[in-house]
# Entry
Amino acid sequence: MTFFYLAPWIVFFPVIGLLLNLIFGDWFSEKVIGTIASLASGLAFVVSALLVFSLTQHPDVVRWTLGEWIHIGTLQLDWTFRVDTLSTTMMLVVSGVGTLIHIYAIGYMHEDVRFKSDLKRFRRFFVFLNLFIAAMMILVSGDSYLMLFVGWEGVGLCSFLLIGFWYEMDTLGRPSWANSNAAKKAMIANRIGDFGFLIASFLMFWGFGSLQFDQVFQQAPAIAASNPGLITAITLFLLIGVTGKSAQIPLFVWLPDAMAGPTPVSALIHAATMVTAGVYLVTRSAALYVTVPAAQFIVALVGAVTALFAATIAVGQYDIKKVLAYSTISQLGFMVAGVGMGAFAAGMFHLVTHAFFKALLFLSAGSIILGMERGHHHLAHIHHEEKGKKKEEKSHSGAHEEVFDPGDMRNMGGLRKTMPVTFWLYLIGTLALAGIWPFAGFWSKDEILANAFSQGFTAIYWLLTIAAFFTAFYMGRQIWMVFFGEPRHEAAAHAEESPKVITVPLMVLAALSVLGGALNYPGVDTLSNWLENTVQFIKPIEFQMNVALISTGLALIAILISWFLYGRKPLKAGEIDPLKKMLGPIFTGMERKWFVDELYWAVFLDRYVDVSHFLADVIDWKFWHDWFHEKVIAGTYNWLSNIALNRYVDQLGIDAFFNGIGEWTKETASGLRRFQNGFVRSYALFVLLGVVAILGYLIFK
Amino acid sequence: MVPVTDYVALSAILFTIGALGVLIRRNPLIIFMSIELMLNAANLAIVAFTRVRIVLEGQIFVFFVMTVAAAEVAVGLALIVAIFRTKHSINIDDMNNLKG
Amino acid sequence: MNAELITFIILAIIAIAAALGMLFSQSAIYSALFLVLNFGTVAVFYILLNAPFIAMAQVSVYAGAIMVLFLFVIMLLGTELLPPSKALPWQRPLAIFLAVILFGESIYLLFIRNVTTGDVPQPVETFGSPQAVGQALFTSYLLPFEITSVLLLIAMVGAIVLTIREKGK
# Structure
């Protein structure tokens, strides 16, 4: 029996979860909030599993329409859920890993809100997490490029919200713009990618007349024959979207800064799911990419170069999460290179295994950070008790004497003894990432390398192989620095192990990292066959022993070198990294991310700030306000009223006229007054004068 | 009969002399007498014209003029006496209190 | 040239001379007496103009009553010589000038324009006699006559009021 009618519940369950927490969250305890959220994600996983089960019986694609959306002219799009093998693979990964991370986050956020002293924010985190699951589900189950884009933007929004979760502080809890700046950076870099995606969809609608997957892919060969330039343009613009979302060159700069968010966020969004949306997009658009081999090669090259570039940066990082962030960028480069070469199954396989062990690594790193924080607070309590005897008052919730970074590997060391469970889990994740047999990473990474080798992409093969070498090296470096040697800080010495709610999900992920290779053993090719139902361009290849030997050998050599540098003579507190002494300026370049951020600021962002300063200060203030409004408008008005009307018309015109009349009256009166001299004789004279005048007039009339 | 023109001319001469007296002399009594001279000259002219026109009304009119002149002289002289009592001067230029 | 004309000319000269004498005389008494002479001559003119009643009235009222009154007041007020006037120096020449013009205008009217010409008819004997005047006065003009008497009463009262001295002043 089939369960395809359950398709919309993959989105509805997380939405219901987030609405429950949003509306009633104030009255729930932390356990209830976390349970509701995890349950929502878990039920979405159950539905995904049921859909997979249904597809085994009915392998063809099923499209379940929820409702009409856009019906304008020739654009006909609906809210349609697409259930096929590719989308269900993604659904399983997202909801499965997502649920484990939800459970982990209950324990993690319980401690984090206490470290940052804001218990009210617990609920907000789970609301955002459920929102993310809902948006990601829309992305992977969308039946058209536009519905995919809705989910694409949604996860971008959730990324912004969750990176800037502690928006008023930086990672160490001090009041700062750092976290919100990181969220902004993620949003803006993603936006640039979204712009590329939009241009691609515009071109697609213009050329193909539709955005729905089936209609586009059916027309692809015909249009590729008549107008290959169009498809090249579409695929390259889609690549821009991929570089934004999946953090490739040149838009990868947001992902390391995104480590400012809490660790569950880093694990879920920036390791397992959101960043893989780009890989999913390319795989989904396989029908378009296979028609333009030139664009495919560019995709593969971008992926390979990014893989190597990020791996070199990871070597020089000191923050535990930053190493993992650059490692994520590097592994995403592997995936993008894989799907760029046409090895869609290999890329998706690596996506799935990477989700397992990268989530494991990130969550274990979170466990380590919490352990360091616990140790630090333990210290503060001890100090407080000691100094309490000397009657010194000290507040200890977040306001310690020194600035302590719990994620800095230079403060760690010897955690193997104090946090053994976390150590073993981390070790499993590292081995999986480094590609050591028989862990999951070996199988998936190897398949990509074998594809590169057998299809003749020599440059890409060597780029990826060297990147794999570096991968093993920096993970080894991390293991020796964190877990071996002596603690380099008091906090590390007092670190405590994490509770079960944190370690149990990790154990599940560790098991998947060990056994995950079984998904696509060469020869058995379970995943390849599964995906072939949807992506018809899968070509499973046979196992290449020499590739496997080279990659494993290089990985082991890398681990040996790292032991040589970091494990044999463990670092003491305050000691400089030995690699720095060896490589000098090269190490500085690695440490400083090859100055990419500085380059972007100097070339683009400072110019933008200059333009906006110019517009604000010069155009808006000096021109509009100071000159136009003050001088022209206000000045003219003032001139008009004060000078023209007041002075000339009123004072000199009207007032002068009436004052003049008064003056004239006065002058006349004072002149005429002289006739009244009181002398009768003169009066009589004037009478006679009048008589003479009248008589004269009458005579001579 | 003497032409009436001559009588009227004589009347004009007397009238002019009377007017001149009103204007030039400063003694109010002389001025008053000049006014009586003017009245007299006018009477003469009226009687002359009455003789020409042979209507008696002219003479009646002259009769009344004389009566009124008499009354006027009485009152006017009383006025002058009254003024003299306060001002103790008969110079008409000293009576300029209505000066504006 | 008949006796009437000669009489007229001689009397006219006397009248004008008396008037001028009144005008230029320094003493007020002399002015009054000159005016009396003038009134006398004018009375003779009235006789010549067939107005005997008016002539007698002139002599008795004007020369007899009015001038006597004048002489009384002149004697009451004194006839001191007034010093030459300091005020209104411009008035005397201008007055003379205007008087001359006035005279010129009237002469112009009389002799150049000839407003009075034509034959003069001869009246009846009783024209202007007291009977005739009395007849007209007491029949046609009775009302003005009676009002005139009231007027004289008023003048009398007025003269008394103006010059009365309150008791104790």
Notes: Strands of chain A lie at 62-72, 75-83. Chain A touches chain B through eleven residues (CB under 8 Å). The two ends of chain A are 137 Å apart (CA to CA). The first strand of chain A starts at residue 62 and ends at 72.
